[in-house]
Amino acid sequence: MKASDLIVRCLENEGVQYVFGLPGEEILDILDSLADSRIRFVLARHEQGAAFMADAYGRLTGRAGVCLSTLGPGATNLATGVADANLDHAPLVAITGQASRDRVHKESHQYIDIVEHLRPLTKWNTRVETGAVIPEIIRKAFKLAESEKPGACHVEVPEDVAEESADGAALSAERTRRPSPDHRALETAARLIEAASFPLIFAGNGVIRGQASDALRALARGHGIPVVHTFMAKGSMPYDDDLCLLTAGLQARDYVSYGFEKADLIVAVGYDPVEYAPKFWNPERKKPIVHIDFTPAEVDSYYQPAVEVVADVREALELLNGLVKGQKDPTPFFGLRRLILEQLEESATDDGFPLKPQRILHDLRAMMGREDVLVSDVGTHKLWVARTFPAYEPNTVLISNGFAAMGFSLPAAIAAKLVHPDRKVVAVSGDGGFLMNVQELETARRLGLAVVCVVFHDDAYNLTQWKQQTRFGRASGATFSNPDFVELAHAFGAKGYHVTAARDLRPMLAEALAAAGPSIIDAPVDYRENARLTAPPPDCLVLDVHLGAVSGFDVHAQLVASGTPVPTIFITGHDDTATRERARRAGAVAYLSKPFDDQALVSAIRKALDHSSSGEGRES
Q: How far is CA 610 from CA 585, 593, 604, 620, in A?
């Protein structure tokens, strides 16, 4: 048989369902061999799109997605998606063609050394020098791509090797057994959890990859331990579980971070610092940490575990659940959860236009089932998705948050629809990232895939613009104009919608989600809301004792319960002894009875700020 036939047989043996790619002269033999295979070749419109499809397939299935390109510009186009899979730890095998061996030693048409080009972007890569080694190379590429931590591997096939005769058979493709945990390490972890008053689980993407969400939930619920998760671990703990403190990773002084401040033990499970560096949640390097992951902890002065449980994450959690004795009282964290939820729900039903990001995602969530899939691109909208879009099950929100490559969402959504044809799939993009791989809309239409693209439209690279404004007080080089997205959709044979009022969004979503093919929903967005994402709690609060249906004392109590006490001034129009006493018990820095003059309020605020900076309250 030809070497290209042997390559395809080895891919079949690995259980490959799809090869995503583009044709090219140096891979004609491989394409011809694929034509006789049960493997489906999915023609993409750009190699980067093909790599993102393989990347998302790997995330969703745990098996390496495969992408294929020709030499030179085909391989360089592939590189961004390969790097994304590698840094986000998604299993991927990239196969590239190459010039024949008789011209790789000299300057030659379209030739570059692809192995060297992709070396820093992959776990492992090599060139096939002879057909006899194909079974070993393909098996090794898949084994390494799928082993923890998973990532990208690359195989380069010169065109003269692909067309030569090759004898051989595929090697056994049994999955690598993951290690069982060391019992002494588990015992140490259990004793640390038992000794802690306020342990907190920090779940990372390794929980999703290790199919350990059920075990994580059992440990948390069985012992009353709250859970915070990273962007890529959304769904590991359901949004509607009282123990879920939602998503960490926006900034060090984010509301969620106060869960870390209150905790006296962090149980880091499948945590990957590529998403959220430990210096942000352990700035004083004093938090005791239990590390549970497939691999040893990264060396980091802010992350020095008291014990490392290096093992299969699911098995480790199941065993740990049986070793930990007793039940924690998670209620001190419930005030923080209420505070976060109240913040998230602000503007969720706002009828203003352009649309608030919260409103777009609130309506999207209402139109999607718990197991439907949302894929986020990279930009400001990604922060809103991570923070405000509820996730209930693992792998129902896909976010590139390691390499964080723009242009990810549409190709990834195509792969998600191939993996889950019975689920609704929505790609959320900014207008910048969407146009980076908009050509894949033709791929979705050709394949008959009902992928809904919701475009947050603001005519800018807003995340960059926002950071420029924050640092320099001005922005430059970040604005542009856009095509008519409705006409663009029609040009691709897709449906197109333009939102002109908040009330339009749900009917448009309903129609798009029911369509047989792809669609674009152009959603003008008001990013003035961004300050809500990163504004920390205030250095002092002025609370009216009587806030309509809500008491200022209740608001203060929630902050105290959350572990984030803020120096507080209480004001009242109904002064009496009981109210004064309640304010005293609440630890009021000042108490003012209406009417009072401006100078009295200014003096009280100065006193509160002095109280804050003295260390008695929150540090200013």
A: 20, 21, 10, 9
